[in-house]
Amino acid sequence: MDNTDLSTLGRKEVLEKSLTRYRKERDWFQMFLDALSMMPELSEEDILQQKMLTILLESKQTVLDCAENNKPFIAGYFCNAPEVFHAMDLPWYMLMETPFLAASAPYLADDIKGTEEIGLGSDLCTAIRLPIYYIETGQMPIPSAVLGLIYPCDGAPMLHQVMMHNKAWKDVPVYAADPPYTSDERAIDYFADELKRMAEFLQKHTGHSLDMKRLAQVCEDGNKTYSKWQEYNELRRAVPCPHGWSIGGPQAFAVSQCFVAGDPKCTDWFEQLVKCAEIRVNAGEGIPGVKERIRYFWFDIMPYGWIFELMPWLEEEWGAILTMDMFGNYPYTLIDTSSEEKIWKGLAKRNLIDAPMIRQARGTAENFSNDIRRIVKDYKIDCVIWPGHMGHKDGSAAGGIMRQTCRELDVPFLQIGLDLFDRAYTNPDEVKDKISKFFTSMGLG
Amino acid sequence: METKLKSKALDEFIQVASTIANPEIQKWKDNGGKIMGYFCSAMPSELITAAGMLPFRLRATGSTGTELSDSYFSSINCTFPRHAFNMALKGDFDFIDGLVIFNSCDHIRRVYDHWIRQLDTPFVKILSLPKKSGAQQVEWFRSELAILRENMETQFGVKITDDKLKEAIKIHNESRRLLRELYELRKSDNPPITGAQTMAVTVASTAMPPERYNQLLKELLDDVKRAEGNTDYRARLMILGGELDNPEFLKVIEDLGALVVTDSVCFGSRLLWKDVDESIDDPLTALAQYQVNERPSCARMFTEYEKRAEYVHSMLSDFKADGAIFARLTFCEVWGFEQYSMINDFKEWDIPLLCIDHEYTLSGVGQLRTRVQAFLETMGK
Q1: Is A337 inside any structural domain?
Q2: Is the dihedral of CA B73, B79, B82, B86 positive or negative?
């Protein structure tokens, strides 16, 4: 556990400490980009990764530059309408992202222990516990303003509660749009008003202004990105699937919503993604070196804390291909930019109803079962896996409904029960054993 | 702790709190009355009373297992909804004619999803309760209540007029006022009523006709005022947390010599510390305002922590509590993170705090006793 007494540090030391992991992350991206640039010839997929790394590097570098030079930047979420931040030229990072950073991976076990040592119960979601720990131990950049997230789960708002109580963060202004539980027109109108108030809040606390013409342009650029994403997902329906867990799915989500939403750079990346997929689909090829035997739908986040211990194994051992996952799913509609009201409503719909995890977990359980029904049919899915991250308690409470839905579709369903970060919660071998027994007993692979 | 209070009214409250289908429920049904069940303190019972129905807050009192509900929930879900839904599947709530649920927490909101699929209760609604306070949120919740009112009118063939609502608000405010009077008596050096007894009284307020409740509560207040106070306690404690409806839980603590003098729990003071504003012309606005902005908030309400901490601190001070016990249902994220914040505040206030994670049913009595005993000893009591 990090026991540094922050009150003994000077302002500069506090800043340095808060940026350590972000600098490591930036340097890591830079190293990979450098390595790619040294290659004599780049494949189409190398180019895809190069474009992605450039977006990531720029995002991290911009935030670091703001933090180091006292320029406004914010912390927020992918479902806070990031198109608005982009239109305001406001750099941002995701408040909950620190445990997901590659730079955090070597420290996760210690960090998790640290969360317990500061008094957070081991039954509480690690995706919330860890950011709290990073805030309390001074390991997250302190932004000019925070856009909180009070959905889709109980833990999310509590992160901000602790943050607002922390001595170093308590003066940072916070706004959180209130999400209705319903998804009708009234709910969209209410949430659109919440987003408008969010924009007013950002203008007030960052000095960056919002030009609605610029927002319209960003949304139109975003529409181009989303159109490409839809095109790409149609290619993933092919048998064999052109890409598995490592390309496409969650990356598509990250590029469109997590760094600069509504930027031509994102569309450019998606065009390259489509190109890569098309090459394989046209050739009738799947993932090189893998014979596709099982097409599975991973209905949650991948276990990023120990992802390399599980996801490649599924392909290598079982020929099991992650054909679709919660974050790669495409339920979006394009944003109508013909009037300001329509833009806000479009953003409200996307961020309240379409964005991954929010879409499923915020409201009633139909949101889980309807996605299963559509995805199983559209992507020729052989089985549905609900990994059951220990923090996703609403999802686990909907397990019976997901199972029933799968029964009706005559597709096997597995609920595992794991932790995205803590490999000791259900260790990788146990997870593999559960999956192997499931595949075997269902006659898959 | 040996209680010195003798009261027929209290005996009746204890009976109501220790059962589900209590005699008042039976009597109501026998007279052809309808009953609306609900989960969560956010339900304005006034709306149900104004419809001429009996508001009944669902508990899982007496539940012994989750064998039927386990296939719907998982082992990382709170045991309260698992026990409550198990009882529902067994038919223990068949006496309700309708049910209102809120998106209170990740566990309870899924009860709605399972209920509508597995049971044939004719009227089941889920209401969207804001997660922060503010004028826009009051307006939103008012519209949710307006929709509920309209749905209830259609379903049950009743008219819930503004006048009826205002009358219902008066009746429920009377309950709150009387309960606050009861709490006031606990501030004395020798409180005449224990924490367990008080919890039976507050729980009963959610399971019997409000007029009858108020009548009994007045009788109880007379008895309590005449009763000899408790003098032989080791420490005065406050109970904090979310869902806690079992007076026996407090009795275990009080049997060790502690006296629970106040609380901030869902079935306790947060139900009654403030009144619905009767001066607001539109009763639905008054109810929405009360639930979203006014009453001591649930930990799920974003931005309200400072107010909650202030509420707890003033309770500790006003009731002269020597320490507090934070009782949290295992797997509850809302109260789990709240607990973390409170731990830090209690350190600053220099007030002893014991945190206990427990199951809904009183299964770990031995462990609870040991921990409370040790806590009292560390307090030097």
Answers
A1: no
A2: positive
Read off the CATH number of the domain in which A140 is found: 3.40.50.11890
In-domain check, residue A19: yes
In a domain, A49, yes or no: yes
| Interface touch B341/A148, C-beta < 8 Å | no
Judge: domain B16-162, CATH 3.30.1330.10. Answer: no
Domain count, chain A: 1
B123 Cα to chain A: minimum distance (Å): 17
Q: In this structure, how many other beta carbons lie within 10 angstroms of the beta carbon of residue A338?
A: 9
| Residue type for position A329 | N
Nearest to B340, CA basis, from A116, A170, A169, A137:
A116
Q: For residue A308, give the DSSP letter.
A: G
Q: Is the link from the previous residue into A141 a cis peptide, with omega within 30 of 0?
A: no
**DSSP label at residue B294:** I
ipTM of predicted complex: 0.95
Residue at A117 is within a domain: yes
pTM: 0.96
Please measure the distance between the N-terminal and C-terminal CA atoms of chain A and give it in whole angstroms: 43
d(CA A173, CA A179): 19
Which residues constitute the domain of residue A134?
6-206
Give tens-digit pLDDT for A83-100.
999 999 999 999 999 999
Confidence of residue B364 (pLDDT cuts 50, 70, 90): confident
Chain A: closest CA distance from residue B119 (Å): 14
Dist. CA B296–CA B294, nearest whole Å? 7
Of residues A3, A153, A128, A151, the one with CA closest to residue A421? A128
* Distance of alpha carbon B253 from the chain centroid: 19
DSSP letters along B355-379, please?
EEEE-SS---HHHHHHHHHHHHHHT
Identify the sign of the CA torsion B193, B194, B199, B204.
negative
Structure tokens that stand for A223 in this block = 């529409």
Run of H or E including B104 = none
Closest residue on chain A to B72 (Cα): A400
